[in-house]
Batch of 2 targets.
Target 1
Amino acid sequence: MSATDARDALALAPPFTPPPGFRFGVATAAYQIEGSTLADGRGESIWDRFAHTPGAIANGDTGDVACDHYRRWRADLDLMASLNVESYRFSIAWPRILPTGNGTVNRRGLDFYKRLAEGLRERGIEPTATLYHWDLPQALQNAGGWSNRDTALRFADYARVVGAELGDVVGGWITHNEPWVTAFLGHAYGTKAPGIRDWSTALRVSHHLLYSHGLATAALRSVLPDTAEVGLALNLFPVVPAVDDDAHRAAATIRDGYVNRWFLDPVFRGAYPEDMVERYEREVGPLDAIQDGDLQTIQAPIDFLGVNYYNPMRVAPSAVSPLHVADAESVGPTTGMGWEIEPAGLRRILGRVREYTRLPIMITENGSAFEDGPVVAGAVDDPDRRAYLAGHLEALGQAIADGSDIRRYYVWSLLDNFEWEEGYDQRFGIVHVDFDTQARTPKASALFYRDYIDRARKD
Ligand code: IFM
């Protein structure tokens, strides 16, 4: 069978049987799609500041306009409904609600998300809100940002304000999206806002993020109805030694500690992994941000775990401190981001998660960027993305059969959008966006997903 035939066969394979209560969704994040960064009293965020820093983002792109979703949200919700989408995961921009992170609540910001959530309900789509998808109010960054423990308390205040206002329309709540990215890409590698390169700061930040997750979970529960569900979204990676020898296996254990266990262990086992604590204390310095009682706060019971899965990581030993691990060559095809495509990795990482918890799981993100063809006669052919989705949906069905209690699957992303330091170069959308005209064109992958949902519901 040719590669094209194999892709088509996969796309036409029977869908998995959705378990009771399961919903198919799409996901986005505020700074990546909203634009209107100065509208209705919104404050500055660290991403506004970072995106306007010369050299930080490909082509000097910014999220100033992005997909103009702040003004076009009604049409975007209609589009979702036309694609049979059952749940929408969006994020709330903290600086729209509390422009300086603190103090006065901006009513107009709250109203936007209220209207959005109500608009979803009117269209029969379930709203799921993420509180933090990386857009910290710049005023809080000026006071130290996430390296300042006080920011965790401010986050809980923000959670309480938003929960009290939207709790009657939004049932699913995610405190943080990918705290690993915020902590390490934002503060150790500096490729994301706020662009800091200091491991000691990154480790403080990672702890404060987790601590703030615990505080925000409690804050949300104090204002939400009992039926509301609260969790967090971790980006998890199956880590594979590039060569099956002791040195590579040791590198894989470290990388796993860095990306997976550093977050899973405190949330589900109430302790940081000892090998990583020793490593960081030896190579970076004392982990003095961790105070008595914090781990109990972090271990606050949650209702679900969000898992973002894109790719496996292949690793090799390296001389570079503090981790002594390097990325190894991918095996097989990769996406536009250079990420290896391995649907079976989704099944494997869910197996790993079952070692930690049997809680319900939401696949809070899964998707791919490719260089799509042009819009021709109102259509965009994106066979690679369609195959990516088909393969991962198949793996999801297998994970359910393995015993994972999967409740949601969110494609990243509904729209082509601002892909952080890659600007608009990397297109993750199942819907094409022409950034000159803001025209939306569902790609073949969107039509595949629409039909997949239809078939899954009919079977
Ligand atoms: O676009 C991002 C998203 O904001 C967080 N998870 C990964 C996506 C693709 O890089």
Target 2
Amino acid sequence: MKIPRSHPRYKSLIQRQLLINGLRDGFVTEAGLIAHGRGEAFDYLLGERTTEEGEIAERVAIAMLLLSKNPVISVNGNTVALVPRGIVELADITNSKIEVNLFHGSREREELIKKILRENGAKEVLISGEKYKLIPGLDSERARVNPDGIWISDTVLVPLEDGDRTESLVRMRKNVISIDLNPLSRTSQYATISIVDNIVRAIPNMIEFAKEMKNCDKEELNSIVSKFDNKKNLEKIIRRIRTEF
Ligand code: PTJ
């Protein structure tokens, strides 16, 4: 479908089309379209822009990724449909591994997503593989993780995640950075740093912040992380939704 640039909802229609194409090509699930609809509703309430709170969380997340020894970016169908190149660029600049981790897991989808990331320049893309480890206390497909990726990570970036795995990863004492437009979701509520923003804006912002901050010394990065109060930041976003829109 050709979407005219002049259409007032051009950006939103492009995102929908990317997901529809992903469904047609077999790497986005039907549930992924429903999840996107929920995201759109919250984006509407946030004014379809990065809020001050979103930007702060994005900066803090970059400081945390740069401080981490084994950071991993977890990727699912929706993420790769919307920001494939951005994920690769962010992984490069923050020295993070990329691991495909799916809620509706299938070997075929894992391989498709890996292929797309490789086509977008990723040198290495992990999948759970034959020697997978299981995240304790998690019954979904998402429990299966790569022993050299999420399993040994200290920080995991989890865009468009379900709450169960976030909780389990936090229980494993990992830092969890979420990107989720819903500030009330269990993912946002449990994550160490909750970025409430659309992934199509969050990832490019984070790439810019990483370029700015990659030469900062550890002390400066530590101070950015330790001054941040995730609960308060989330409360501010919820208040913003209630009062501004
Ligand atoms: O590819 P799979 O099999 O791993 O499945 C991926 C989905 C997204 C279907 C799966 O993880 C899922 O069901 O997720 P949930 O539990 O519906 O949560 C997705 C969250 O992402 C919701 O809270 C949405 O508000 C949020 N969301 C949707 N689109 C965006 C978003 N957040 C940021 N940017 C978006 N574009």
